[in-house]
Amino acid sequence: MIQIVRAKMHGLKVTGADLNYHGSITLDPEYCAKVGIYPLEFVDIWNKNSGARLSTYVIFGEPGSRCCILNGAAARTCQKGDEVIIAASAFIEPSELCQYRPRVLTFKGENEIDEILEYCVAEGETLPYDFKIEKVDNVLPSKKRRA
Fold first, then answer.
1. Residue 12 and residue 111: Cα distance in Å, rounded?
2. Known catalytic residue: 95?
3. List of domains in the chain
């Protein structure tokens, strides 16, 4: 089995840090629905400003709030305004790789969605695999998408 990225939010700005909360990352559930991240799912978080890396689980905040709040010990790794990358992963057999189309949200400004993308892997002609990034027009994961 290999571990692959299953869903990703890239460039989301931290809107708060609460050291005294139980722990986790609080995210806008509307963003999670668009990319396919679930409540209580473990995610990796990479701080673009400091280089800090951590793993924690997702809880949902207020829909439409555009929130990204680091809680508990995770609050020590990020400050309000830092840009983060949040990635969920899956374990698959290498033979299944071409069946997955991980959804990626990119952000601008005050956590406004900039682009919705999908990573696409296909069998290659000269190399074992071809990779491309496709822009997606719709905001909900397609039914044929595995993730």
1. 6
2. no
3. 2-90 (2.40.40.20), 94-135 (no CATH)
| Rounded CA Rg of the chain | 16
How confident is the model at residue 23, as a pLDDT? 74
Q: How remote is the C-alpha of 20 from its chain's centroid?
A: 24
| Angle, CA 101 vertex, CA 108 and CA 37 arms, to 5° | 60
57 is catalytic: yes
10-residue mean pLDDT profile of the chain (147 residues): values are 97 94 91 97 96 95 96 91 97 94 96 96 91 81 46
Q: Could you tell me the sign of the dihedral formed by the alpha carbons of 31, 35, 37, 42, in that order? A: negative
Catalytic residue among 21, 31, 55, 57: 57
Element of type H or E holding 32: helix 29-35
Residue type at 42?
A: F
